[in-house]
Design goal:
Helices cover about 20% and strands about 35% of the residues. By secondary structure, it is of the alpha/beta class. The chain has a single domain, classed as Purple Acid Phosphatase, chain A, domain 2, CATH 3.60.21. Helix 2 runs parallel beside helix 4. The chain is globular, with a radius of gyration of 19 Å.
Amino acid sequence: MHYFRHEVQGNKLTLYPFVCWHLGAKQSDERFIKEMVQRVKDDPLGRWIYLGDAGECITRHSVGSLFRQTMDLTEQLKYFCELTAPIKHKGLFGIRGNHGNRVFKETGLEFDEALCVRAGIPYMGISCFWQLVFRRGASCNVAYDIFTHHGLDSGASMASKVTKARALDQLVMADIILSAHSHICCEIPPKHTAVLEHGGNTADPIRWKTTHEYVCGCAYDSGTGYAEDKGYSPILPAHLAITLHVTHSSKGPHERRQSCEIWRGGE
């Protein structure tokens, strides 16, 4: 687990998690990917993070057919960097996906690290526990604690996918948890946890901590290929755009608000 910090001069930011593009697979929806890149480019407050599986990364010993890839590993890496080049300056960091980890297991090469280096963003390994700080002036700031992980293996059902995503809130206490891997795109009902404030003189030190959890989707149309072969219900391309808004106050507590939009493709 690595730490990252990003400061914003202002009170608003929209975060775009890019994940599971699976470039090199016939099911990768490149038109949808280009639309998402354009949205970030057109959004002056937009920033993106990379959550893994940019490439299909099929190897000789992994699931999937090596001969059905439309690009080799180097081409997948280069194409991701080509697609994101117009928004390179808006990238924050990247983490590892399970498909990139296939390459490491067979060759010792960190595919996702090489991708992040070429894309010009820091590589944070398996997971990143980070702070997004909204600053006004020299001393007034409000922070979101955010945990980012590619996600855990799950079953085919929606219930199994959500349950595996929620398992990460047993690992960290954060304002926001972002994961993926299952290809679904959704906002999970928030989790509320009671905490005690120490060192205060208040008669009631109980406070409530709310964790918002999101599963960040994919750019993979599973209407054909592996899902079709197994008889799974197709999952279509979709990505999140999470807008965080802070109202600074010099007299009372700062107000934090967030909203989530889901951009869908393949329909």
